[in-house]
Design goal:
The protein has 247 residues and is of the alpha+beta class. It has 9 helices and 6 strands. Helix 1 runs parallel beside helix 6 (128-144). The longest helix has 20 residues, at 153-172. It is globular.
């Protein structure tokens, strides 16, 4: 049975709201290790902005998140886009941001449920806030040192999306497919043809690597069968992470 994206999003949102509502002020102002230019409150500002963009039709159509983050120029454009979510809400309190997020959520739920189209006819645009929330929920949990929610429908949806994006990057470069194994007998293959390498690991760790939350050294240290060298630089959708992140 397909996963209900709207229910997964709401579950993730509840987890974020609970976590930040119970956090001390100094925790909310602390730097997030996964996104060191942002505080915990800034991350909430960003996910609020993503929901606002989907509902209002403001997602940039000239940016390809699957590929553009791989270049310096693309990273600069992507950073400017996401930083705008934070900067435009910098003077808003956490309570005000959470209230806006709730309003935006009510606007996007019909889109996530497939009851109405998104304002912009971009393929799979409705998954952008879902995948983004999956990533940033765990950025916040990492900053607050409160791990949890690692085996949820939200993570399952995000893994499928990030593996698909990884496959597109490999196929664009003519690289043979990789088999990705996790859980008890679960696997995904990034394309047709003979598999050249197999990447095996805990589903959460694979997800965090694909979402740019593990360094290339960390990715290389995971279990690989076959030569991982051509694949490691393309694992992260957001370009290479310099520092090791342990959660």
């Amino acid at each position: 049975m397909p996963i209900d994206a709207s229910a997964a999003y709401l579950d993730g949102k509840r987890s974020v709201v609970d976590a930040v509502s119970n956090a001390a002020p100094q925790q909310l102002d602390s730097t997030v290790p996964a996104t060191p230019l942002w505080t915990v409150t800034d991350v909430v500002r960003h996910v609020t902005g993503i929901a606002a963009d989907l509902s209002s039709g403001a997602v940039p159509t000239d940016f390809n998140p699957i590929e553009d983050w791989q270049s310096d120029a693309g990273r600069d454009r992507g950073d400017a886009y996401t930083d705008h979510h934070v900067a435009s809400r910098r003077d808003h309190s956490l309570g005000e941001v959470l209230a806006e997020w709730e309003q935006n959520t009510q606007r996007i739920l019909p889109i996530l449920r497939g009851e109405q189209p998104a304002p912009q006819p971009i393929p799979f645009i409705e998954l952008i806030p879902v995948n983004d929330l999956a990533v940033h929920l765990h950025d916040i949990r990492g900053a607050l040192q409160e791990p949890g929610d690692r085996d949820t429908p939200l993570i399952a949806l995000a893994v499928a999306s990030y593996v698909a994006a990884f496959a597109m990057r490999l196929n664009a470069r003519g690289l043979p497919p990789v088999r990705i194994r996790y859980g008890e007998g679960k696997e995904r293959v990034t394309g047709a043809g003979e598999v050249a390498a197999t990447w095996t690991g805990d589903r959460f760790e694979l997800f965090r690597a694909l979402a740019g939350r593990r360094s290339n050294a960390q990715i290389a240290a995971m279990q690989w069968d076959g030569d991982p060298t051509p694949y490691i630089p393309l694992v992260s959708m957001y370009g290479v992470r310099a520092d090791a992140l342990v959660e």
